[in-house]
Each structure stands twice: as C-alpha cells, then as structure tokens.
Design brief:
140 residues; alpha/beta; 11% strand; five-stranded parallel beta sheet; 7 helices; Rossmann fold
Length: 140
C-alpha cells in the first residue's frame, strides 16, 4: 500500500495529546501505512519542541516525534515540482487578494504534486488552493 495521506502539524499535535480526539486516532491507526509528512511540517514540529523548556513533557513529545513519526513516516521534500506549483498558486491567489502563509503553500504544493490528500484540522487555511484534496479527521 502506498502513500495516500499527507498529515499536517495539527494532526500530529493532536496525536501527541494524552487523549487524542477519537476520530483522529481511529483514522491514524487505520491509515498508518498510508501516511507521510512534509519537511515543512517536520520543521514546525521540531521548532515547537525546541521552544519548550527541558521537562518530562518535552521528553515525551521528543520520544513521540522521533519514534512514532520520524521513524515511521516518509518526510517529503519541497522540491522543484512543488516550488513551481506553489509559485503558480501563490501568484494566482495574490492576484485575487488572498495571500496564504508561505509554509501552508509549501505543504499544499507537496500534497498536490504528490497526488496526496492533505489531512488537516485547518481546512480554511488550504481551501483556496486549486487541485488540492483535503480531509479533516476531526470531522468524520
């Protein structure tokens, strides 16, 4: 079974909670072998960890990230195809007065150019991108 889903930071953050949302957890378990993340998401997660003070909580989050995410899922790069797609969409959206965040555009581009469904809680952050499949595991 190949990759189907690209999960963003909101989904991984939910899975790091002591009691994750039941729908998110069920989808995570059901589709575990079909999940990838982006290098952008990995960066966001590591930045969050590095901003935390040394603590048991930080150690638990680090363990989850490195054992359950980094070692389990492919981390897809922001490559030439993604950059081209992103530049096109960023120009199109800017011309109509909508300027999405740069990291969200990178994540959308990686999902779109790899024909993956982007799984996020923040559907509105990505809904204006063309040719992007979106799914919210919080709303199933």
């Amino acid at each position: 079974m190949g990759l189907t889903y690209l999960v963003d930071t909101s989904i991984i953050s939910e899975m790091m909670r002591p009691k994750p949302d039941a729908d998110v957890q069920a989808n995570w378990q059901q589709h575990y072998a079909e999940i990838g993340i982006t290098a952008v998401t990995w960066h966001e997660l590591l930045t969050g960890i590095n901003l935390m003070p040394a603590s048991k909580r930080r150690s638990a989050f680090e363990a989850f990230l490195f054992h359950s995410v980094h070692n389990s899922f492919p981390i897809l790069p922001y490559d030439n195809d993604a950059a081209q797609w992103h530049a096109h969409e960023r120009a199109r959206l800017t011309q109509i007065g909508n300027k999405p965040s740069f990291p969200d555009g990178q994540i959308a581009a990686i999902a779109a150019t790899n024909n993956l469904t982007l799984v996020t809680r923040n559907i509105s952050d990505f809904s204006d991108f063309n040719e992007l499949q979106l799914k919210n595991w919080f709303d199933t």
